[in-house]
Amino acid sequence: MDFRQLERFLAVVDHGGFHRAAEALYVAQPSLSQSIKQLERELGDALFHRVGRGVVLTEAGRALVEPARAVVHTLSLAIESVEAVRGLRTGRLEITAMPSQAIAPLAGVISRFTAEYPGVRAVVRAGATADQVVEAVRTGRTELGLLAGVRLPQQPGVGLHPVARQRFVVVTSAGGPFPAGARVGPDDLSGLRVIAGQTGTGMRAVVDELIRSGVELTIAVETEHREAILPLVLARSGIAVLADSWRETAERAGAVVVDLDPPVHLEVAYVSHAGGLGPAARMFLRMATDQER
Q1: Do strands 54-57 and 48-51 pair parallel, antiparallel, or not at all (unpaired)?
Q2: Please, which residues have CB within 8 angstroms of residue 111's CB and are 6 or more apart in sequence?
């Protein structure tokens, strides 16, 4: 068993099949399949059930995932540490981020980081909820995560690095219930229809809390696709409660953005793998947290 076999095994797990994993690794699919077959022979057990063009982990495969991530993470740290002696000229930075925070503050930090370290490739993966971000970091799928919540999660296995607060705003279509620049209270929202994110997101937590407090909001659409919310608002399907990082994008698209009063905030934080960070991730986290001080 070698490092490359485990890395290829995890690629198949993360990409849900051999074809997409081979594309992500820039290897031929037969070569990838051969590596997995060799790993299965060495372990004496099948790691995947082949289902059509996809795969499903066997019990042995599920048992291997976390130890494999730990081995790959530790060896990657060792390789990157040696490379760091020559300076941060190459490498790979992987971050799992929630959608709103991928707009801000992440986009700005990545822009500065890649300008300073052009040889490092940045990969941003999606996590719809704070729990998904924490799980991606805890299991070693990525070294860093960026999440937000009305309350920050406190979970073992990851380090938490608060960096910002983002205010929630109400977004409506032009000609909707509120004029630009207005400040709206909970009572002003009664009787309106709302487009809500999935349970576990900050925006959904605010909507649910408003409903629990007696505000007569009707959830017209619930969507896991964050990118669909603004088009639905513009099509007059309802209002939306979004993080302030969406303000510029929403206003450019022709929507009206108003502030909630009293204000409700999201707490924004990076999370890091408890097993340590490679040079690229360490430098990025330093840059991201120094910016907010």
Answers
A1: antiparallel
A2: none
Q: Tell me, yes or no, if the pTM score tops 0.90.
A: no
Q: In which residue are the tokens 């409660």 written? A: 241
- Per residue of the chain (293 residues), give pLDDT as tens: 777 899 899 999 988 899 888 888 888 888 899 999 999 999 999 999 988 777 899 999 999 998 888 888 778 777 666 666 566 777 889 999 999 899 889 999 999 999 999 989 999 999 999 999 999 998 888 999 999 998 888 888 899 999 999 999 999 999 999 999 899 999 999 999 999 999 989 999 999 999 999 999 999 999 999 899 999 999 999 999 999 989 999 999 999 999 999 999 999 999 998 878 888 898 999 999 986 54
**C-alpha 3: how far from chain center:** 26
